[in-house]
Design a protein that fits this description.
single chain, mainly alpha
């Protein structure tokens, strides 16, 4: 259950980061 909560928190953070996070992912790939 704790892991699921952490995952949800990570997703929220990812959404807040938004394009910046996506751009970083693309650059890494």
């Amino acid at each position: 259950m704790e892991q699921l909560g952490e995952m949800k928190h990570a997703v929220s953070k990812e959404k807040k980061e938004g394009t910046k996070f996506k751009k970083e992912k693309v650059e890494v790939i």
